[in-house]
Amino acid sequence: MPGLDGREIVLGVTGSIAAYKAVLLLRELTAAGARVTVCLSGNAKHFVGALTFRTLSGRPVLDDLFDPQSDAAVEHVTIAERAHAMVIAPATANLLAKAAHGLADDALTTLLLAARCPVLVAPAMDGGMWEHAAVVENVATLRRRGVSVLEPDAGPLASGLFGKGRLPETRVIMDALLRLLAPARDLSGERVLVTAGPTREAIDPVRYISNRSSGKMGYRLAAAAYRRGAEVLLVSGPTAIAPPSGVTFVPVETAEEMREAVLQHLAGTTIVVKAAAVADYRAKAPSATKIKGKRDLTLDLTPNPDILKEVAAAARGAFVVGFAAETHDVAANAQAKLEAKKVDLLVVNDVSQRGIGFEAEDNEVVLLDRWGGTRALPRMPKADVADAILTHVLVLRAAAPSQVAH
User: pTM for this structure?
Assistant: First the structure.
């Protein structure tokens, strides 16, 4: 995950039943390359001990400003100064109140008051506390000061009640942190439309025609665009991936549904990234009932609409990116597709290679543009490929702005 390599992050944990989820967040932060110092409130230790956080972070845990045995205790100001961001997850209503009123009566609130870095707060609380007037006012105060306060999730709470108060999912917190630390908001003001995943074309109510696309590349592109400041619309076929937080999500199933959704939202879009693997054919007359019996079956297929070509022709003023998954004669097939579809940029990958392309976490692609340029990207995680593609789009558009309009 780009954006956290070498970053100093302070993870504050308060006394909530959701404190155990902070352990999962710590693992995600360290896996993303962050250097994490954990700071516990006094009540947090009743839920998860300091030893767990010290073991996973590889660093001392700050939990008592007056512990003479703790080196971290006397370094709390230094920790606050060197932090790139401070994340408090879970944050109780009590913590929100202290932060809003500038109280510093323990290690965590003292560190929070000393911090000059971006602060991200992920609340968790029970019952109707989130809607209480005092909490609403405290959250508003923190947001006015520039603190990023996430909305808690709704669902069953520890008390047995149902309501808004659950700690946001780890991926939501990670996405918000990456957006907070994005090195450049170079897509601010852009409206990016991304398609992702496969489509499904019914044969009968049980069977369908599809492909091996997992949607990972498209979802990484949508997340990267949002993190870099864009307004993002993600039109996706069926996948097993949760949509990135912050994007507008439009689920579809068939190629025709994807076409309708894309054309409906095309107006005002400045960048279109067609990463979906759309089925080339559909059954001309799908059966209304399940086809029975073990026998030879002949399907009468008809071509699906060419969404990429149609979008390239219709997207006046928008920069259009297409994808080409090839298995042989990669260069020749890719060049032919670039010319036929009339897109601005074509992202080409050889899906016959093991470890990249469909379903893989990594990708290795070649970028072909309609001005004759070629750029090969080495094998890297798809999140990094996504950022490289978006950066290349901005470079190409800046170099030839008058030529982008189709």
Answer: 0.71
